[in-house]
Amino acid sequence: MEPRDLSSHSPYVPGRGVEEVARDLGIDPGNLIKLSSNENPHGASPDAIEAIRAHAEGIHVYPKAAHTDLIARLAEKWDVSTAQVWVSPGADGSIDYLSRAMLDPGDRILVSDPGFAYYAMSARYHHGEVNTYPLTRADGFAQTADGVLESYDGERMIYVTSPHNPSGSVMSLAEVRALTEAVDPETLVVVDEAYGEFADGESAVSLLAERDNVAVLRTFSKAYGLAGLRIGYAVVPEAWGDAYARVNTPFAASELACRAALAALDDTEHVERSVETARWARGYITAELDAPTFESAGNFVLARVGDATAVTEAAQPEGVIIRDCTSFGLPGCVRISTGTRDETRQAVETLNEVFADLKLGAHA
Ligand SMILES: *Cc1c(COP(=O)(O)O)cnc(C)c1O
Question: What residues does the Aminotransferase class I/classII large domain cover (predicted)?
Answer without folding.
Answer: 31-351
